[in-house]
Amino acid sequence: MSRATFDRIVFGTMLLLVWQAASVWTGPELISSPLLVGQQLYHWSLNGVLSANAGYTLLAAVLGFVIGGLPGLALPFILRKRPFVTAVLDPFILIGYGLPKVAFIPLFIIWFGIGIWSKVALVASVSFFLVFFSTMEGVRGVDPRLLRMAKVAGASETQLLRTIVWPSALPFIFQAVQVTLPLSIGGAAIAELISSNRGLGYLVQFSAGNFEVTGALAAVTALALVVAVTNVGIDRLHDRLLAWKPPHPKGTSSGSLT
Amino acid sequence: MRLNGSRPLLDVCDLGKRFQGQSKDGDRWVVEGMSFALYEGEFVTLIGPSGSGKSTLLNMIAQIDIPSNGEILFRGEVINDSRRSRPSPGCGGRIGYVMQDDNLLPWRTLRENVEYPLVVQGRLNSETRARVDELIETVGLGGFEGYYPHQLSGGMRKRASIIRTLAYDPPVILMDEPFGALDAESRLHIQSDLVKLWQRGEKTILFVTHDINEAIALGDRTITLTKSPACVRGEHVIDIPRPRALDSIVTAPQFPGLFSRIRAQV
Fold first, then answer.
1. Full strand arrangement of the beta sheet holding B77-81
2. Among A233, B152, B156, B179, which is most exposed with the fewest C-beta within 10 angstroms?
3. What is the pLDDT of residues B154-167, one digit of tens each?
4. Distance of CA A242 to CAs A235, A250, B106, B107, B180, Å?
5. What does the longest C-alpha to C-alpha distance in chain A come to?
6. Residues 6 or more apart in contact with residue B199 via CB below 8 angstroms
7. Chain centroid to CA B94: how far?
8. Contacts of residue B148 in chain A, CB cutoff 8 Å?
9. pTM (predicted TM-score)
10. E-strand spans in B58-113?
11. B93 interface with A at CB cutoff 8 Å
12. What ipTM does the predicted assembly reach?
């Protein structure tokens, strides 16, 4: 076990202790204890409530991330050689980015119903802009000296995109995934809070509506676990795809906050 | 000097490059009335004050830039002139260009970097692979094929960038102060590697430097340039016989005379 892993376990335990202390202080009716939450989660995992609802939220998040993220990924590559179109689109994309997407949830419900697609729409609208801006930064940041070298070596425009622009932008694209995918899960849960009959967000809303603090906290904890597992997955992929990157100066893993 | 035949391999005729509207009196000529020729198999060094448009000159020869005046001929065929609207950089693999920075692709291993031009030209096969192997061995990079650029020293990266250009065998190679950033020791090493590779491959090299010693040590001929706008100031045949001892080139009897004549022009 590495030093970092050990310290993480210690820190996590400390958080649980603080939580437990807060629970004792206010009483479990207001802040449920970690133990009760654990029991609730265990109960839900046995009767299938956990996997069904977590699966639903994750599905909405991933669908929205892909539907919004893919155009956000492709657009910067299309705009690369079209500065005029970029200049025309720029203010509109900035306004779109600035709009509070949560305000659209009622509209998404009118347009897409209260099923999974209104959640997907919210997540997609958030993902598109985050992926777009990050990828754009990567595509714009390509070292012109590498492009010149490749052109002299005989690379065609398509080869430039594939062998120079894409790998240069990949770290930025990854950064986008690292930020956007966890936010997508949160976004899907937020959409479920407003109107849903399934999902972890629905579980939070339903439990809190019945003053079941334990249930609400258990659903939030499940959400945190889903995000944590997703982050580990992204990190693995990162290390595999970006093995060529010089290691982080302090030797911490790529998923660090820096 | 190895002039064979009368027709030059590369002919630069009355070349000029103007950048627009920087000074009050309109355009500024960076290169003007430049003419010189490179003959098959020659190693020509080009020396001039910094900011004298040397890189602009190489960029025009490599077809990265379009000249404002004059033309460049390769084996008698015009490859770049002011009427060109779509330049084809590298002139279809005929002109190689080793730039100041090594420009290795950080996501490719050393071997993949050396093979890069062959890959984009669709010429990577067992024959060219064997050539890559041989070049890697020649410059002492054997065993480092799988390393990424950030794992290599500056000198090793420089070697890799030179053999990347040699690997696809362009008849003319332009080099723009390639050893500027290296320490004296690795510089000497790479210089002798370069001479070794050049003597083997019968390449024609145009080598830009600001170091008079380097210009004398490497070249068959040294061309000096004027201050901006750049044009040819003088030509000096380096009559020091090869093989030369690069580390003690200053002890060659011809050296002091050459040095002072070139020194007087830059």
1. B26-38, B10-23, B69-74, B77-81
2. A233
3. 999 999 999 999 99
4. 10, 17, 10, 8, 31
5. 72
6. B242
7. 13
8. 244, 246
9. 0.85
10. 69-74, 77-81, 95-98
11. yes
12. 0.89
